[in-house]
Write a structure and sequence with these properties.
The structure is a single chain. This protein is mostly helical. It has one domain. Helices cover about 75% and strands about 5% of the residues. The chain has ten helices and two strands. It has a two-stranded antiparallel sheet. A hairpin with a 5-residue loop joins strand 1 and strand 2. Helix 7 packs antiparallel against helix 10. The protein is globular, with a radius of gyration of 18 Å.
């Protein structure tokens, strides 16, 4: 059995297109499955809250802290002007951040820079750890960073590329599901203070417009990043 697994793995890694397709299908199943999504959604929340935090800092706001919760929700608190472009862009950034990180990862994989993606993720998680303000958040960051470090340190370059392709696909698909979940919550009146609703109050544009914008960004990221990954050369 071990010989068969090694032979299958070698054949898979020898074909970049097939490896990318397998990684994409597996990622989609992980996102669609309720059991795996309940656990792996924590990774999506990390990316989401990281997006809020980065844009808050870039827009001149003061980052007070980030909290990650066991129900996979999160909260990024920043202080500054309560209205204006800085606040709008900070609220806008969370949902697209997940898809755009997946898109960036897809590009790095296709240009044979998977190792750069791994170490960039570790660096970003280390920086984010400094802003975490609760124990579950620390645990989430440390565990996620530990898995990525393990891949970067112990996996061969071929397996690093395959793992990064899997991670990129997961972020691309995982960027869309929370938007659909938010839409369902809002239709049931269970998310009155969502990012979309806060943006609606700040800009006067309906929350549905922001949901549609996030969905289109995520869809464009999947089409672009997916094309890059499916054209991935031999790993």
């Amino acid at each position: 059995m071990d010989d068969l697994v090694r032979e299958w793995s070698a054949q898979l890694l020898d074909s970049g297109n097939v490896a990318a397709l397998v990684a994409g299908v597996l990622s989609l199943l992980l996102v669609l499955s309720r059991n795996t999504w309940l656990l792996l959604r924590n990774v999506v929340t990390i990316a989401h809250e990281g997006g809020h935090a980065v844009v808050a800092l870039l827009s001149g706001r003061k980052l007070n802290g980030i909290r990650l919760h066991s129900d996979t929700s999160g909260l990024t608190v920043s202080t500054g002007k309560p209205t204006g472009p800085g606040m709008v862009f900070t609220l806008l950034a969370g949902y697209p951040a997940v898809s755009l990180l997946g898109l960036g990862g897809a590009w790095l994989v296709t240009v044979d820079l998977a190792h750069v993606m791994l170490w960039a993720c570790i660096a970003l998680l280390a920086a984010m750890l400094l802003a975490i303000r609760n124990a579950y958040g620390v645990l989430s960051i440390v565990l996620t960073g530990g898995v990525i470090f393990g891949v970067s340190w112990f996996a061969t370059p071929a397996w690093q590329a395959l793992c990064c392709a899997l991670f990129s696909w997961f972020l691309l698909f995982g960027g869309l599901r929370p938007i659909a979940e938010l839409r369902r919550k809002r239709s049931g009146g269970r998310a009155p203070n969502s990012d979309a609703d806060q943006l609606a109050r700040l800009t006067g544009l309906p929350a549905g417009i922001w949901l549609a914008l996030w969905f289109l960004i995520g869809l464009a990221a999947i089409l672009t990043g997916g094309t890059w990954l499916l054209l991935m050369p031999q790993v």
